[in-house]
Specification:
The structure holds two protein chains of two kinds. By secondary structure, chain A is of the alpha+beta class. Chain A is 55% helix and 8% strand. In chain A, the strands form two sheets. In chain A, strands 4-3-6-5 form a four-stranded mixed β-sheet. By secondary structure, chain B is α+β, with helices and mostly antiparallel strands. In chain B, a hairpin with a 2-residue loop joins strand 6 and strand 7. Classes of the chains: A alpha+beta, B alpha+beta.
């Protein structure tokens, strides 16, 4: 299987032109394989989650309200706008490649602009929250090693409960950041090659080789996003993850789920100053 | 890039004797198969060694695709009917002279003897960057060489450009659209009858194709309904030289005129956009108006609204304005 398509430019140079579109199917198959293996693992192999005993003082535990706010309205709006634009980008990019023909370029770049703007907002917005809550820390790495050792049957202390986000969430975010940055940066440059109301067209901005590599990177990152988005949707609808998914819709998760999976020392919730009873706010999104 | 204009690349030559066999061969071989009608477009590609199909399906032995038949509702022209036969056919000349006028100015007499109607409407674009084997959008690459500040684009599009700015080169296509022709296509799922204007595909939909034919599809016939038989027709082709040339632009119109007033109209132009362009807004605007220079002038102005010229083809805007004017008012009235 080829990963890249090549062509000879008018100056006789061998230049890349695109990612090989057969990789679309490789990404879909890889995502489906992951889902099947994961579902089998959770159903047949994985036992109940074991965490280190909760050492939270009774008084602090009692102070935790019934509803723990996880995502602010702005964060949820960003997530769903990003999701809509991501789906639009993936469908407009890849449906024509598998035979569904329509006027895709216009919708694709508009969705790309929406995604770009929403991510710029997200970056600025995160500085008003807790920007580090989504990045892996030392405890995450230590606990990942502990979980791995315990999975292999070797002695290791039980891991801590999660902070606001489990480590797999944090890694997923990291991969999404990298792949999204790749498609956005290359995509913005690629808009210089088509007629839009935003940029003046200039196809000579880079050499054929640079343009080719940009198209390849855009394509490969886009194909990678097919698998990533499929896995994200799968995780979002898994029964044990539904409280997290619901929190992205309604903004909060239940006290029980919070205490079961999250460490109140690592993810400190603040009592809401609002009038709604039993509602606590997080300073992170 | 080096282009070897020498011997053709090797391919399997398949010569079916029936349309059903031809369609089956196309279906079996999918994207590997290349359909050849008169061969005038095909041999360019093959001898330049730019297209290298594994199979070539030669339709020249399929007699059922040839000939012109009058039906209860117009005429049916086999896709393999030569252009010369169409020019000389009495029923076409009598009732659908728009088509014979258009076909009579295709290329040269020799080419019209060999070229077919199906081939003429299905031929590929004539952009030299694309034809030269450069990796442009239409060839599967990621650039349009014609739409650059120094690209040679005198013959290219002023409408409908979407990354690719090549124009549709057919002379018969706008006439067939104006006559409300239907294209009969055999597909793996059965026969489809398509309006002429829907046969053509623009780059915004699929940049690597110029018509709706997919692997396994075969254009078998073109039906012209009697609806526009005997209407007032006008066809004009503008080209750099008077024989053996592709159009810089052409216009075809069919008007139903009663007492000097246009009751219905169909107008199409080619070589202004990546696919032949029907001027629906103009058709609607001139209905009920007199077929004179004033209406033609209004129509011409309306026709060029939204045109986006490239570096070297701004002349196409006044050219189109005047051709549309003449298509409505005629050459004498419009002068």
């Amino acid at each position: 299987m080829r990963f890249i398509t090549w062509a000879t430019d008018p100056w006789g140079k061998h230049v890349p032109t695109h990612a090989a579109w057969d990789l679309i199917w490789a990404a879909v198959i890889a995502a489906l394989a992951f889902m099947i293996v994961h579902a089998i693992y959770v159903a047949l192999v994985a036992g109940p989650k074991i965490f280190k005993k909760n050492e939270l003082p009774q008084s602090k535990e009692a102070a935790i309200p019934e509803r723990v706010q996880r995502h602010s309205l702005a964060a949820r709006l960003f997530h769903w706008i990003m999701a809509a634009s991501m789906f639009t980008l993936l469908f407009t990019a890849f449906l024509p490649k598998v035979g569904v023909q329509f006027n895709w370029v216009l919708y694709h770049w508009i969705a790309g602009v929406v995604l770009t703007v929403s991510i710029v907002f997200h970056i600025f917005h995160s500085f008003f929250m807790d920007p580090w809550s989504i990045w892996p820390d030392g405890i995450d790495i230590r606990d990942a090693m502990r979980r791995t050792l315990r999975f292999m049957g070797k002695p290791a202390p039980p891991p801590e409960r999660f902070a606001k986000y489990p480590l797999e969430n944090k890694f997923y975010h990291l991969v999404i950041v990298l792949s999204s940055l790749a498609v956005i940066v290359t995509g913005l440059f690629m808009m210089k090659r088509i007629q839009t109301v935003i940029f003046t067209r200039n196809p000579y901005l880079f050499s054929d080789m640079t343009w080719g590599l940009m198209y390849v990177l855009h394509g490969l990152a886009g194909i990678g996003l097919i698998a990533l988005v499929m896995m994200h949707v799968y995780m979002g609808i898994r029964p044990e993850k539904l409280p997290i998914t619901k929190s992205m819709i309604f903004g909060w998760m239940s006290r029980d789920f919070y205490l079961e999976e999250h460490d109140p020392e690592r993810w400190v919730v603040k009592q809401s100053t609002g009038k709604k009873r039993g509602y606590a706010a997080s300073d992170a999104d | 890039m080096a282009v070897f204009r020498d011997v053709m690349p090797a391919f399997h030559l398949l010569q079916p004797s029936s349309a059903a066999e031809a369609q089956r061969l196309l279906e079996e071989n999918g994207g590997e198969a290349w359909v050849m009608a008169g061969g005038l477009d095909s041999f360019d590609w093959l001898k330049d060694r730019i297209k290298k199909p594994g199979m070539l399906v030669d339709l020249s032995g399929v007699d059922e695709l040839k000939g012109i038949r009058t039906t209860g509702d117009g005429v049916e022209i086999g896709a393999m009917t030569t252009l010369t036969e169409i020019v000389n056919h009495p029923a076409i000349k009598k009732d659908y002279s728009l088509l014979s006028d258009a076909v009579s100015v295709v290329a040269s007499p020799q080419i019209r003897n060999q070229g077919t109607l199906g081939g003429n409407v299905s031929q590929d674009v004539r952009c030299w960057y694309y034809r030269g084997g450069w990796p442009c959008y239409r060839a599967g690459g990621n650039i349009c060489y014609a739409d650059t500040p120094v690209g040679r684009n005198r013959e290219h599009a002023i409408f409908g450009a979407d990354r690719c700015v090549a124009v549709h080169p057919s002379d018969s296509a706008p006439a067939l659209i104006a006559l409300d022709a239907k294209f009969v296509v055999q597909t793996p799922k059965g026969e489809r009858v398509i309006d002429a204007e829907d046969y053509f595909v623009g780059p915004e939909i699929d940049i690597t194709r110029i018509n709706m034919l997919e692997p396994g599809y075969l254009l078998t016939a073109l039906r012209i309904p009697a609806t526009w038989a005997g209407a007032k027709f006008y066809f004009e082709k503008v080209r750099d030289r008077n024989v053996w040339d592709f159009p810089l632009m052409n216009v075809a119109s069919a008007l139903k005129v009663s007492g000097g007033t246009i009751s219905a109209a169909r107008i199409a132009v080619s070589a202004v956009a990546p696919k032949p362009m029907r001027l629906r807004n103009v058709e609607a605007a001139i209905a009920g108006k007199p077929a004179n220079a004033e209406t033609g002038m209004m129509a011409g102005k309306m026709a060029v609204e939204g045109a986006v010229p490239l570096q070297f083809n701004a002349y196409k805007i006044p050219l189109m304005r005047n051709l549309v004017k003449r298509a409505i008012a005629g050459t004498e009235e419009a002068a």
